[in-house]
């Protein structure tokens, strides 16, 4: 499987970047670092990345508008072929445009157990609060600072006599362990059957009177007490693929879809011409399109009364 391409943004020391980079050297690591970029040309991490043969880019943000600076970084990331961005001690607020351009593709590591202690001085805040544990979190980046869904956390016990520095040093060890594992899981989740099934389920069950049963060992979505409109197929008859099977709207449509994208669409064995298989394990699934196909498939089997309700709802 091709490795996911990750761009790492740093502002200084870059020890988390180094942890990501060293982890990426293991052959089984599902990502590779394609660029290390910094908003400070003096960032120490740049020297390390260069020595390891990773392309670097540095540009001072001083005197530049935030969005203007972010556009430069964005262009570098895209030119390097990055599919994901990992913020590793990147101490800059990001423009909304930049965040939107990497929606669900950008992670950050933060030295606290979020949602506690966003921003700076996290270690002192944990000590001042008398917490028994501090720690670190990896989260998906959204437009709010240190916000966004937390993917993983490590708790680190606070020791008697800990200072902000001694605590930070121990949490940093935990950060180095956590970031690479979480990033590896994140870049592979779009190929994991459980994650894919959850995406299909969410969309299928949002349709009127839809329910889920198991049929022929497959999670299957239908209209309550009615016909089925989608099957989630995982290694069915040992085909080794993950896909969703939906009804086509006309007999020629199956052939047309397969013709248009033969890597993605296929004729599902035992289902006949009225169905088409859509692979979900290619890593570039267009979920709006899957939603649309599920909806079309639902329409194929929905009783007339329900269709009428759907048409009325569609008008709003
Ligand atoms: C790390 O502790 C990281 O969690 C923190 O900055 C340090 C960077 O160290 N990041 C934040 O506080 C982000 N809000 P590093 O440059 O050695 O990775």
Automatic annotation (TrEMBL):
Annotated catalytic residues: 110
First-tier enzyme category under EC: transferase
Entry's Gene Ontology cellular component terms: cytosol
Domain of life the protein comes from: Bacteria
Catalysed reactions listed for this entry: N(1)-(5-phospho-beta-D-ribosyl)glycinamide + (6R)-10-formyltetrahydrofolate = N(2)-formyl-N(1)-(5-phospho-beta-D-ribosyl)glycinamide + (6S)-5,6,7,8-tetrahydrofolate + H(+)
Known pathway: Purine metabolism; IMP biosynthesis via de novo pathway; N(2)-formyl-N(1)-(5-phospho-D-ribosyl)glycinamide from N(1)-(5-phospho-D-ribosyl)glycinamide (10-formyl THF route): step 1/1
Record family assignment: Belongs to the GART family.
Its job: Catalyzes the transfer of a formyl group from 10-formyltetrahydrofolate to 5-phospho-ribosyl-glycinamide (GAR), producing 5-phospho-ribosyl-N-formylglycinamide (FGAR) and tetrahydrofolate.
Name under which the protein is recorded: Phosphoribosylglycinamide formyltransferase
Species this protein is from: Sphingobium quisquiliarum P25
């Amino acid at each position: 499987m091709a490795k996911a391409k990750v761009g790492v943004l740093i502002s200084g020391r870059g020890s988390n970047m180094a942890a990501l980079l060293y982890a990426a050297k293991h052959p089984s690591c599902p990502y590779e670092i394609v660029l290390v970029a910094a908003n400070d040309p003096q960032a120490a991490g740049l020297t390390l990345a260069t020595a390891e043969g990773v392309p670097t880019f540095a540009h001072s943000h001083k005197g530049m508008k935030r969005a203007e600076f972010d556009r430069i970084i964005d262009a570098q990331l895209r030119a390097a072929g990055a599919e994901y961005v990992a913020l590793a001690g990147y101490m800059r607020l990001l423009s909304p445009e930049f965040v939107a351009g990497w929606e669900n593709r950008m992670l950050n590591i933060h030295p606290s157990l979020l949602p506690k202690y966003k921003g700076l001085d996290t270690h002192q805040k944990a000590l001042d609060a008398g917490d028994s544990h501090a720690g670190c979190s990896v989260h998906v980046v959204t437009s709010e600072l240190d916000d966004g869904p937390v993917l993983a956390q490590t708790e680190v016990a606070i020791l008697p006599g800990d200072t902000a520095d001694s605590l930070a040093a121990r949490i940093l060890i935990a950060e180095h362990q956590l970031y690479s594992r979480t990033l590896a899981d994140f870049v592979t989740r779009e190929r994991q059957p459980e994650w894919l099934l959850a995406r299909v389920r969410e969309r299928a069950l949002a349709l009127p009177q839809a329910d889920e049963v198991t049929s022929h060992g497959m999670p299957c979505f239908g209209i309550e007490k009615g016909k089925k409109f989608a099957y989630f197929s995982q290694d069915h008859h040992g085909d080794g693929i993950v896909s969703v099977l939906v009804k086509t709207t006309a007999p020629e449509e199956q052939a047309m879809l397969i013709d248009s994208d033969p890597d993605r669409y296929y004729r599902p064995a035992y289902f006949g011409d009225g169905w088409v298989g859509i692979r979900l394990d290619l890593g570039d699934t267009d979920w709006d399109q899957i939603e649309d196909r599920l909806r079309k498939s639902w329409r194929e089997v929905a009783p007339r009364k329900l269709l009428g309700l759907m048409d009325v709802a569609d008008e709003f």
